[in-house]
C-alpha cells in the first residue's frame, strides 16, 4: 500500500457547492472534496485509456481511495478541528479538552475551523473566501435576465491545499502520470467560466506507514472527514450504537456534529440519495482500541471511503489544556464588483425600513413616558398636520401664545415640550447618527450597508416628518376625549 501525496494551489476562485439556506446564494465548502478529485481523474482516465476493465475497479469499487484536500499553510496541513477541543470566548488563546476535564465552563465553545495540533498547542486557520454577484442568463436571447440575480461564494485564489490518494503502487503510478500530464486542473462548480483553475504543485509517491497506537491508554478516535455509518436496516445512521457495532468497542463519551451529505452526479445530472453522516471533527473516547484499528485507519470507516468519507485517526486523549500557537486573520472578503440594481434596490428598502422603524419606536417611547393630559387633541392634531405638510418648524413658530403656554407645562427631563420641539432638528440628527450604528449581523452596522451598496440617503426633513407624525399620533391616542371649543392659533 502506498500513498500519492498531492498539493495544489488555487489560481482562480474555486467553488465546491455546500448546503445553503439561501436560494440566491451558493455557498462553498472550505476544502477540496475527494469526490471532485475522483471525478477529474476518472475523466482523464477515460480520455487517455478508455473504459477499460480497470476503470470500474479503480474509480467505482474502491481500488483507489481519494481523501479530501485540506488547507496547507506554513508547511503544515490543517484538518477539521476536533470537537472535543473548546475555545474560551473570553480569552481566545485558551483551549480545553472536554474529555479531560470534569467541568465544562459555559464561556467555552466549539471551534468551527481547521486546526494543526502540536503537543499542547493549537494552530487555527480558516481559508479565505469571497462572494461574486451574477445575473441569470437567457441563453436564447444571449443576454442577462432582467432582475434575476444569484451569488456565488468561492474559495479565494492563491491558497494551497494538500491531501492524498491511497492504493497499490502500480495503480498510483497510472494516476501520477495522469496528473503530471497536465498540471493545470479544473475543479468544482462553473469550472468552464471564471472558477475552478488550479495548479498541481506536488505529486509524490510514498510508502504508507500505519502509526502504531497499541500503547494508547485512552484511545480517542477522530473523524478527519465526514463519515457515513449504516444501521442493521441498511440506512445511514448517526446513532453511536451503530458505530459501536461497527467498531466492536464501547464508546465512553463523544463530541459530535451531524451533516447531511448530498452529492450530484454530473454525468446523470441528478443527485445521489442523501445520507446522514457524522461531521468531520467528531470525536469518540473509546474504552479500548479496536483489534483491527489498523485496517480502519488504512481503509476508512463506514461507507463511500473511496470518495473521501470515513478518513479517521486514533490519538491519545491528552489530559492537558492547550494554548493558541498561531491566529488566522483570513476573513471572507467583500465583493470587488458593484452590486446589481436589484440588490441596491433591496438594500435601499431595507435601509429605509430600518431607520423608519427605529425613529417610530423612539417616538412611541417618548410619547409613552410623557404626561400630556393637559393638552387637547385639537392642538396635537394641528402639530401632526404641521409635520405631515413638511413645514413643521415654520408653522410651529406661528403658534399662538395660549398653545405655547400649554406646551411649556409638559416636562421632558430637563426640557419642556416647547423647548424640545424648538430643537427638534438637532434631536433628529442625533437619532439618525445612532441609527447608523444599528447592528446587521455579528460585525456589520447599518452604516456599512450604506457605504457598500451606494445607498442614497434621504434628507433630514423626510425623517423629521416620520418621527413627528408618530410622536403626535401616539400622544393623541393617549388623550381622553375632551369637550369645549378648540384652542385658537
Question: How would you sum up this structure, described in words?
Answer:
Strands 1, 4, 5, 6, 15, 16 and 17 form a 7-stranded antiparallel sheet that branches. Helices cover about 30% and strands about 30% of the residues. The protein is of the alpha+beta class. It has 2 domains: about 1-325, no CATH class; about 340-480, no CATH class. It is built from 13 helices and 32 strands. Helix 6 (about 340-370) packs parallel to helix 13. Strand 31 (about 440) and strand 32 form a beta hairpin.
Give keywords.
single chain; 489 residues; alpha+beta; 2 domains; seven-stranded antiparallel beta sheet; seven-stranded mixed beta sheet; 13 helices; 32 strands; elongated; disordered C terminus
Q: Tell me, what's the shape?
A: elongated
Q: Which residue ranges are poorly predicted, with pLDDT under 50 across at least 5 consecutive positions?
A: 483-489
The chain-level mean pLDDT equals 84
Our count of domains comes out at 2
Alpha carbon gap, first and last residue: 98 Å
Q: Note the total helix count.
A: 13
In percent, how much strand structure appears in the residues? 25-35%
| Count of β-strands | 32
State the share of residues found in helices, binned by percent.
25-40%
The major β-sheet equals: 7 strands, antiparallel
Structural class: alpha+beta
Rg over alpha carbons: 32 Å
Amino acid at each position: 500500500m502506498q500513498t500519492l501525496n498531492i498539493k495544489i494551489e488555487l489560481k482562480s476562485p474555486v467553488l465546491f457547492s455546500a448546503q445553503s439556506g439561501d436560494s440566491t446564494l451558493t455557498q462553498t465548502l472550505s476544502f477540496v472534496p475527494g469526490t471532485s478529485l475522483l471525478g477529474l481523474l476518472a475523466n482523464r482516465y477515460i480520455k487517455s485509456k478508455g473504459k477499460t476493465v480497470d476503470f470500474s475497479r479503480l474509480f467505482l469499487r474502491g481500488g483507489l481511495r481519494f481523501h479530501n484536500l485540506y488547507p496547507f499553510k506554513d508547511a503544515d496541513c490543517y484538518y477539521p478541528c476536533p470537537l472535543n477541543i473548546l475555545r474560551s470566548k473570553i480569552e481566545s488563546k485558551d483551549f480545553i479538552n472536554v474529555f479531560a476535564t470534569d467541568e465544562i465552563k459555559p464561556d467555552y465553545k466549539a471551534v468551527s475551523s481547521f486546526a494543526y495540533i502540536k503537543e499542547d498547542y493549537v494552530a487555527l486557520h480558516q481559508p479565505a473566501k469571497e462572494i461574486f454577484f451574477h445575473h441569470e442568463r437567457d441563453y436564447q436571447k444571449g443576454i442577462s435576465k432582467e432582475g434575476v440575480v444569484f451569488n456565488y461564494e468561492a474559495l479565494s485564489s492563491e491558497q494551497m491545499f494538500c491531501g492524498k490518494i491511497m492504493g497499490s503502487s502500480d495503480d498510483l503510478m497510472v494516476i501520477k502520470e495522469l496528473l503530471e500530464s497536465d498540471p493545470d486542473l479544473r475543479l468544482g462548480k462553473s469550472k468552464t467560466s471564471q472558477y475552478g483553475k488550479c495548479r498541481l504543485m506536488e505529486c509524490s509517491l510514498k510508502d504508507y506507514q500505519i502509526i502504531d497506537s497499541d500503547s494508547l491508554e485512552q484511545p480517542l478516535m477522530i473523524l478527519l472527514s465526514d463519515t457515513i455509518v449504516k444501521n442493521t436496516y441498511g440506512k445511514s445512521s448517526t446513532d453511536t450504537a451503530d458505530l459501536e457495532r461497527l467498531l466492536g468497542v464501547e464508546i465512553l463519551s463523544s463530541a459530535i456534529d451531524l451533516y447531511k451529505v448530498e452529492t450530484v452526479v454530473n454525468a446523470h445530472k441528478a443527485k445521489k440519495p442523501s445520507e446522514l453522516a457524522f461531521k468531520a471533527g467528531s470525536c469518540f473516547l473509546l474504552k479500548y482500541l479496536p483489534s483491527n484499528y489498523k485496517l480502519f485507519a488504512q481503509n476508512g470507516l463506514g461507507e463511500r471511503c473511496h470518495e473521501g468519507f470515513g478518513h479517521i485517526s486514533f490519538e491519545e486523549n491528552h489530559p492537558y489544556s492547550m494554548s493558541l500557537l498561531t491566529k488566522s486573520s483570513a476573513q471572507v472578503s467583500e465583493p470587488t464588483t458593484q452590486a446589481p440594481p436589484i440588490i441596491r434596490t433591496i438594500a435601499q428598502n431595507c435601509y429605509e425600513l430600518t431607520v423608519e422603524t427605529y425613529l417610530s419606536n423612539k417616538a412611541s417611547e417618548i410619547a409613552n413616558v410623557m404626561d400630556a393630559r393637559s393638552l387637547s387633541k385639537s392642538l396635537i392634531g394641528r402639530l401632526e398636520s404641521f409635520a405631515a405638510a413638511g413645514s413643521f418648524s415654520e408653522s410651529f413658530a406661528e403658534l399662538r401664545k395660549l398653545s405655547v403656554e400649554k406646551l411649556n407645562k409638559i416636562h421632558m427631563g430637563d426640557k419642556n415640550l416647547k423647548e424640545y420641539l424648538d430643537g427638534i432638528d438637532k434631536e433628529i440628527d442625533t437619532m439618525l447618527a445612532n441609527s447608523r450604528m444599528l447592528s446587521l449581523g455579528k460585525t456589520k452596522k447599518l452604516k456599512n450597508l450604506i457605504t457598500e451598496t451606494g445607498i442614497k440617503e434621504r434628507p433630514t426633513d423626510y425623517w423629521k416628518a416620520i418621527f413627528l407624525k408618530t410622536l403626535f399620533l401616539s400622544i393623541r391616542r393617549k388623550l381622553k376625549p375632551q369637550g369645549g371649543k378648540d384652542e385658537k392659533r
